[in-house]
Design goal:
Blueprint (H helix, E strand, L loop, with lengths): L3 H15 L11 E2 L14 H5 L27 E2 L10 H8 L6 E5 L12 H5 L5 E7 L2 E6 L14 E4 L2 E2 L19 E6 L13 E6 L10 E7 L3 E12 L2 E12 L8 E15 L2 E15 L6 H6 L6 H5 L3 E16 L3 E17 L2 E22 L2 E24 L2 E27 L2 E18 L9 E19 L2 E12 L7 E3 L2 E4 L7 E14 L2 E13 L2 E7 L2 E6 L2 E17 L10 E15 L16 E10 L4 E10 L16 E11 L4 E8 L7 E4 L12 E3 L4 E9 L1
Parallel strand pairs: 6-9
Antiparallel strand pairs: 1-2, 3-8, 4-5, 6-7, 8-9, 10-11, 10-37, 11-12, 12-13, 13-14, 14-15, 15-16, 16-17, 17-18, 18-19, 19-20, 20-21, 21-22, 22-25, 23-24, 25-26, 26-29, 27-28, 29-30, 30-31, 31-32, 32-33, 33-34, 34-37, 35-36
Length: about 725
């Protein structure tokens, strides 16, 4: 009999193969597609009917410059149908997200799908200032927003991930990127810090929401092929459409790679889909399915010398232990939207099952079952002659982990080493009100209350009883101001609180220090001050944000033994920085001065990080390890109205950063040169070729941290060598 994981993989592969032959028929209506560069093109006719527009400046902040949209006569026109109520278009989502008086970004799929391999979350977020995303191996990535999760040497913490508004993170707060399929989304929303209030997010880094298309979107059918260096290859296909009140969409991809480093090969098959039904133009429900099967070997962290002199070499222990990270997941959800005269109500439920098979220092065999629901009310009306937008909601996510760890015998299970049932409950209630004291000025205030519990039932008592329970009651208020200076220019400021509850992994025990149960770890709290501006003119886009977060009890890795990291609370720390984005047409009409002249477009994202201890008893005012002080991504593209583009790009870390809290060991600075070219005229076909790290520079892409490192500490993840990728995509 086939195992559950083998059956799941068979189903996913069959789903991927079944996508290409046909599609649901779509009602025919005439509409232009979204431009490839911006999302502030004339909105589809349904936009006004689906979501009442706000008084926001409609500047279209995008974080990646891609080939310009074609004239109406170039490329294919997409048959469309009346739009979905449960899922916003990119234009609607942009208008909504820009009512936030703080750092946010919306990245449309055209920014990464047709001009990059779209392999990891780095391809999506590379040009979002304030975000540091560096792949380690396979899909696993070290992600930090405003210095979140710097001490996390494994998994993700400090940023809450969502797919169509449904949590991806486990109920106790862990996150991973192996379930993220960059080919599956039509846009991605980034909410930094306390600006993620409407998701119930309670962490320093905020939230990221990945949004899939529906059968009512333009061009619901498509297929793509990508291949490149180190054995990378991927086949993706999607199909969808609408018929009367019904619509549906499904996308699937299957990929594999040998990997740049030894012992880094992997393969993944992913499926996402949804089916919607409109009872009326003001009442819609939608059901979601997401399933993933991932098999990935882990090359491991190595010493600095090994990372720079022999970057392909895997850690010896990872080879002898055949270390891997394998995941099977299935997620089901429903969302319903009801629109009244001035009020919109959204509510839904979700549940997912995840099986983690993870031979590392031990063989981790975890089964997760998470479930929950959400409800949100948005009321937009005039009160006493002033426009007022009121938002309130509740989010519930509960979960159970059947946690078993075995001795790792060359990648196979040995004797049982630990076993427990871990239960998490989280209920957050939030409210936010925006009062427009002037037609262009809104005063915004809100708060969130989080009730959370963690309960562990230890079933392996040979090493003592580790059972325990803890409870948290946390308030996170915020206040801000949003000023629409003109229709293309906004300014904003806010003060927000965040509170991050520790996960089951935040325990402090190890050789040489007393054992501290997870119940003794306090939540991380931060007060963040933020001010900034953003806008868009025809040949200029910008974002400039400054912030400072005063943090108490930051969850920090402040004890080290044999390369491992145990987490406890630091005393006081400071995270502050500057996030700057710029897109500008340096030259226009060089070879074509027609109605849509060609352009030489410069796109830049710069992040300045100043993260440090604040008079800590052990580390004084040392810099916090784990992130570069300066990080720059830039590209200079020649773009023609026919869709052709060509140009170089740069990733630059000009200053090495520390990897230990004692500030004794650093990485090395680096600069990576890239080059890409392609054609994307907004029509049926597009293609690209991209060269990365063309000078074959040896560099350290990311690093784990300790309290005090030595020259041989195995903390470093080598960056990938010279690589060339190419792909073609069709849509209709």
């Amino acid at each position: 009999m086939l195992s559950v994981s083998m059956r799941l993989r068979s189903v996913l592969l069959a789903s991927a193969a079944a996508l290409i032959p046909g599609a649901v028929s779509a009602q025919s209506a005439l509409s232009t597609s979204l431009p490839a560069v911006t999302v502030d093109a004339p909105a589809q006719q349904r936009a006004a009917a689906t979501r009442k527009p706000r008084n926001a400046a409609p500047n279209a902040r995008t974080v990646r410059s891609t080939p310009a949209a074609p004239p109406a006569s170039v490329g294919a026109q997409a048959p469309t149908v009346p739009g979905a109520l449960t899922v916003l278009t990119a234009q609607q989502a942009l208008r909504e997200i820009q009512q936030t008086p703080g750092g946010v970004a919306l990245v449309t799929a055209d920014a990464w799908r047709t001009s990059t391999p779209s392999n990891t979350i780095k391809d999506i977020l590379d040009y979002v200032p304030g975000v540091f995303a560096q792949p380690k191996w396979g899909d696993d990535t070290r992600l930090s927003i405003r210095g979140s999760s710097l001490s996390r040497n494994f998994h993700l913490r400090g940023v809450q991930l969502y797919m169509d508004g449904i949590p991806i993170n486990t109920a106790d707060g862990y996150g991973d990127f192996q379930e993220i399929d960059p080919t599956a989304y039509k846009y991605v929303e980034v909410f930094k810090g306390g600006n993620a209030l409407r998701f119930g997010a309670n962490s320093l880094g905020g939230a990221i929401n990945f949004v899939t298309p529906t059968g009512r979107d333009p061009f619901p059918n498509g297929a793509s092929v990508d291949m490149g260096a180190f054995g990378f290859r991927r086949l993706q296909a999607n199909t969808g459409g609408a018929n009367g009140p019904w619509d549906g969409f499904i996308t699937a991809s299957t990929q594999s790679a040998d990997g740049f480093r030894d012992h880094s090969n992997g393969e993944a098959t992913r499926v996402s889909g949804n089916v919607g039904y409109q009872f009326s133009p003001d009442f819609e429900t939608r059901f979601y399915l997401n399933a993933n099967s991932v098999r990935q070997r882990i090359p491991g962290s190595v010493s600095k010398a090994s990372a720079l002199n022999s970057p392909e070499t895997a850690a010896a222990g990872n080879l002898t232990g055949d270390q891997q990270r394998n995941i099977d997941t299935v997620r089901l959800a429903n969302k319903t939207t009801i629109r009244l005269d001035n009020t919109t109500i959204d509510f839904g439920v979700f549940g997912f099952d995840r099986h983690l098979m993870h031979p590392i220092f031990q063989y981790l065999d975890y089964s997760y079952q998470d479930y929950g629901g959400f409800a949100k009310v948005t009321d937009d009306r005039n009160i006493g002659g002033y426009r007022n937008v009121f938002v309130a909601g509740v989010n519930v996510i509960n979960g159970r982990i059947d946690n078993n760890q075995y001795v790792n015998v060359a990648g196979q299970k040995g004797a049982l080493a630990s076993s427990s049932i871990d239960r998490s409950k989280n209920t957050s209630v939030y409210v936010e009100n925006s009062l427009y004291v002037l037609p262009t000025v809104a005063l915004i205030g809100g708060t969130q209350f989080l009730y959370a519990t963690r309960n562990r039932q230890d079933r392996f008592l040979n090493d003592g009883d580790q059972s325990g329970a803890t409870e948290f009651n946390l308030w996170s208020p915020k206040g801000g101001l949003l000023w629409n200076i003109d229709p293309t220019w906004q300014a904003y400021a806010n003060i927000s609180r965040s509170a991050e509850v520790p996960s089951f992994g935040e325990s402090s025990n190890g050789p040489g220090i007393p054992t501290i149960p997870f119940t003794s770890i306090r939540p991380q709290r931060a007060t963040t001050y933020e001010i900034g501006t953003r806008g868009r003119r025809p040949d200029l886009t910008w974002e400039l944000t400054g912030y400072r977060a005063n943090i108490t009890d930051e969850l920090q890795c402040i004890y080290s033994a044999f390369g491992n990291c145990n987490v406890t609370n630091a005393d006081r720390t400071i995270h502050q920085g500057i996030e700057a984005g710029l897109g500008i047409a340096v030259f226009k009409g060089m070879f074509d001065a027609g109605p849509q002249p060609d352009k030489l477009w410069l796109n830049m994202a710069y992040t300045f990080n100043d993260f440090r201890f604040d008079n800590d008893a052990t580390f004084g005012n040392n810099l916090l390890p784990g992130a570069p002080r300066h990080y720059l991504r830039a590209e200079l593209l020649y773009k023609h109205a026919n869709g052709f583009y060509l140009g170089p790009n740069l990733e630059w870390v000009p200053e090495a950063y520390y990897v230990d809290s004692a500030n004794t060991l650093k990485t090395e600075p680096y600069a990576l040169l890239g080059l890409k070219a392609g054609v994307d005229n907004g029509g049926t076909y597009s293609g690209y070729i991209e060269a990365r790290n063309v000078l074959d520079t040896r560099y350290i892409a990311s690093a784990s941290i300790l309290n005090q490192a030595t020259a041989t500490s195995p903390l470093f993840e080598p960056g990938t060598g010279r690589a060339i990728y190419a792909g073609v995509k069709a849509r209709w």
